[in-house]
Amino acid sequence: MDVSYNKLFKLMIDKNMKRADLLRKTGVSANTMSKFSKHKYVSMEVLVKVCRVLNCDIGDIMEVLPEPK
Known about the structure:
434 Repressor (Amino-terminal Domain)
């Protein structure tokens, strides 16, 4: 796991938004939402869509984790 989307899920909780709401508002697929849950890579296009819907910056929804030693 090289990226974490825990910030995204926290922000969604803070905004009282469910995953289905984010899917509907961004137009991304359920498969992409699954990638968020599994902390897998998603495209920059998807990240920008999410940021626009949540009115935030990329650093507010994800973080790059350090390489394991």
